[in-house]
Amino acid sequence: MTEYVFRTSGADPGHGSGNGRVAAVTSAPASSGDLAPAVEAGESAAVAALRPRVAELLAQAAAAGDPASSADSVGTAISTALDEHARQAVRQARPPLDPAAERRVHRVLRDAFLGLDGLQPLLDDPDNETINIDGCDNVHVIRRDGTRRRVPPVAGSDVELVAMLRGMGAAAGRRGGQERRFDHGEPELSLQLPGGERLFALQDVVDRVAVSIRLHPLKRVTLDDLVARGELTPGLAHLLTAAVRARRNVVVSGGPAVGKTTLLRALARAIPPAERIITVEDAYELALSRADHPDLVAAQAREPNVEGAGGYDMSRLLRASLRMTPDRVIVGEVRGAEVVQMAKAMSIGIDGSMATVHASSSRQALSKLVTYAMEPPANYPRQAAMALVAGAVHLVVHLAMARDGVRVIASLREVVDADSEHIVSNEVYRPGPDGRAVPATPLRSDTLDALMGVGFDPSRLAYDGW
After folding, report:
1. Residue 26: is it exposed, middle or buried by C-beta count within 10 angstroms (0-12/13-18/19+)?
2. How confident is the model at residue 11 (pLDDT cuts 50, 70, 90)?
3. Domain count along the chain
């Protein structure tokens, strides 16, 4: 892994403008072996000089009817500006940029006009899993092998970083979604980036602008793919596939960054392709493919406008989804009162629905769902909330980190019923000594019958193992 730092200034189309911009480029050697680790002053000056010229050429292309935001148009404009810059250098008896320097400058400009400036190289690196920004110059990445490292700044100042984030929020609207505010009145930003990455940012209520970006390389993932990665056993994959096909309602639980969304995608791949699926999310993240499920509706909650009007929250979105004849509803993450509408969907015939919830164990996942139903604005009494959840959820699949740092299924819990004090459940698989799930309690006979009815073979569990 090699790091590059580019310092540029001038207008920044789409992300505001600013001086003293610092853009951090981190690239794997395999994709950038011809790049030097440092950028010469001449290259910095070239970037600063060429940025407004590229913007001018793109404006001319747009006026002529060409799509100024397309990759071809941007590449052509950058190449034209570089040619002009080289000719001008020769006329002024200055040495032109050498080919390697031109490639570096071309990449910085391309990231500025097509990508997300200093963030783009971090997003492009397939080995990065999480990007945490605590101020423009305090940037850390978590790699897929679990290592953590600090990388160069992604912007020249926190003001520039905020401008970049606002540009991302506006771009979300141009891509066909809802424009996301990020200002003093709305200090929270949650959105999906063009590459499918999940971004969350805060300002004003934190000492410096803070950003967390989760990268999801596995989008069209299957349970077999996760078996190959060591995240579950073949027997567990067989059992979960049968649970999906038998239309069991499944909740995936776990802490942050343990793979809940990835597992939810894998479970969704087991749904027969002819079924109608509606996904409901606070911000798009699941990104299920219509190649796998052609009859797919992806729904996203909407924030109120600056006047406080026009909001469309998760509860309302879930309620609306029930009127759209879904075969299954998939909720990206349950965080509050929307649990009531989710549970209603699961218990009124839309069986086989799924959701995720943050929790530290499979048992706590059920408690969290009950608590959400008891909180305003739902305000369910405790017994009613327990009956609601117990009548809706069939299985809880809990993810955790094993002792060797691998994300694994740690627990599988079957919901039985609810009494006056708590939800009755059996832990079919419990965490073993290393954190991986091991058999604990047999499935109930009626559940086993339902799974066998769709092809489940219990004997496969007898020879199963990590």
Report:
1. buried
2. very low
3. 2
